[in-house]
Each structure stands twice: as C-alpha cells, then as structure tokens.
C-alpha cells in the first residue's frame, strides 16, 4: 500500500514539473502518447520483478525505473516510468488431468502347420513379386545405343583377333604350324568365292566401323555434334562410310 501511494505521488509530482517546464507540449500532447525514455529504448534501465505463485492463481508484478538522459532540446531531466503486468491463469490449468483408458478387443492370432514344400512355394511366390530392373526391350530402339553396343563389340573382336593371331604366329614354329604369308595366301586362294567374300567381310567391316565410329567419338571430345539430331545424323553417316569402306576392302 505504501509503495503504491509513493508511486502515485511521484508520478503526480513529475507531471506537475513537466507542465510547469513545458506547458504548451503538455496541453497539446496526451500523456499516453509520449515517447518512451531513451534509456528504455536502448535497454539501459533497471528492472525489479517479484513473482508470487499460489495454487490457483499467479500474480506477476514488474516495475521498471529508468532515467532519461538530458539533452539541449529536452526539458525533462528525470522521468520515472512505472509498469505493472498482472496475469491471471485460468483456474482449469490447476486441475489434475483426468486419464482415460480405451480398451479394444481383437481376435487372437491363429497358427497353422505347413509342410516344407508349401513353405517353399510361398517363398517362391514372394520372390516373384520383387521389383526387377526393366529389360531393354521395353525401350524404343535408338541408333545411339545400338552403335555404342557395336562399337564395343567390334573393338573387342579386333583386339581378340589380333592377339590370337600374334600368339599363334609366335608359337607356330614350336608346334610345326605353317602360318607364313605364302602359306596363308595359297590356302585362301583355294577357297570358294562365297567363302572368300564372307571371310573378308567379317574381317573388314569391324575394322572400318570401329575406325569411323572412333573418329566420331573424337569429334564428340571437342564438344561438337552433341545434340540429339546431330548424334543421329553422324551415326547414320558412320554406318554408311563403314559399309562403303568394307565393301571396297572386300572387292579389292
């Protein structure tokens, strides 16, 4: 009670001093619209807070007292500010929460005995439901991935052929084989014409295709002809050049 009376009297005394010092501003501006002191704006204030908690109510009171720094344009050397915040919690927050229990009944699980063969059938049926990678047949055929596949096949074929013939030529004297150039030419000349064309085509086309497609890959390494249309055009061009070159080697 004494603290509240002291606060009220201090506020009245301060208001009287302000009215005497600056009557025009006091009469034109309501007291509720006055700006907060500079000390509160910058956080340089002193706060005293007291908290009292009871079973059914809690009351919080805070008084903030600040001093406003004097300036040449300010005629208010000291302005005490009193703030009070009172909060009343709802009474139902202090009640003990009621606990409820929901009881649900479900039928008990049943078990059956199965034979090992039946278990294997169930396991096989579950395996058929597993996700698998899609097969290439679901895609529309494209010249791009066909040529990429044949480029690897022809490269492997040429490599295996060269290494196999080289190894056989090295061990031929030890095994009594005749792989000399004259012997090979005479053996090839004795073959029928259809066999000659087939053998020469099998040897020439992988070589020409891999060479021309290798040049196509080198062009890609420079960053040119990388669009879908250009890849398709260069692909068919490679196939045409490889075919013409292979036929030229066959009928030489």
Automatic annotation (TrEMBL):
Primary location class: mitochondrion
The keyword Membrane appears for this protein: yes
One term of GO molecular function: metal ion binding
Recorded GO CC terms: mitochondrial inner membrane
GO biological process terms on file: mitochondrial electron transport, succinate to ubiquinone; tricarboxylic acid cycle
Highest taxon of source: Eukaryota
InterPro entries, sorted: SQR/QFR_C/D, Succ_DH_cyt_bsu_CS, Succ_DH_cytb556, SuccDH_FuR_B_TM-su
Keywords per UniProt: Heme, Iron, Membrane, Metal-binding, Mitochondrion, Mitochondrion inner membrane, Transit peptide, Transmembrane, Transmembrane helix
Spans traversing the lipid bilayer: 153-172, 231-251
Subcellular localization, as worded in the UniProt entry: Mitochondrion inner membrane
Membrane topology note: Multi-pass membrane protein
Family classification: Belongs to the cytochrome b560 family.
Listed NCBIfam families: succ_dehyd_cytB (TIGR02970)
Record-given protein name: Succinate dehydrogenase, cytochrome b556 subunit
């Amino acid at each position: 009670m004494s603290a509240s009376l002291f606060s009220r009297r201090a506020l009245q005394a301060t208001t009287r001093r302000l009215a005497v010092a600056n009557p025009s501003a006091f009469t034109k501006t309501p007291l509720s619209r006055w700006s907060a002191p500079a000390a509160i704006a910058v956080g340089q204030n002193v706060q005293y807070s007291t908290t009292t908690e009871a079973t059914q109510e809690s009351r919080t009171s805070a008084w903030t007292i600040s001093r406003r720094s004097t300036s040449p344009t300010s005629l208010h050397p000291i302005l005490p500010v009193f703030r009070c915040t009172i909060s009343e919690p709802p009474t139902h927050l202090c009640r003990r929460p009621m606990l409820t229990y929901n009881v649900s009944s479900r039928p008990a699980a049943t078990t059956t005995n199965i034979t090992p063969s039946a278990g294997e059938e169930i396991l096989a049926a579950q395996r058929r439901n597993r996700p698998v990678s899609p097969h290439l047949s679901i895609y529309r055929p494209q010249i791009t991935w066909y040529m990429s596949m044949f480029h690897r096949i022809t490269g492997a074929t040429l490599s295996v052929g060269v290494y196999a013939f080289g190894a056989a030529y090295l061990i031929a004297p030890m095994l009594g084989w005749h792989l000399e150039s004259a012997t090979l030419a005479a053996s090839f000349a004795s073959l029928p014409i259809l066999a000659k064309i087939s053998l020469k085509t099998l040897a020439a086309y992988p070589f020409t295709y891999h060479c021309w497609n290798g040049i196509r890959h080198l062009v890609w390494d420079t960053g040119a002809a990388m669009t879908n249309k250009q890849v398709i055009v260069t692909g068919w061009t490679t196939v045409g050049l490889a075919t013409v070159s292979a036929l030229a080697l066959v009928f030489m």
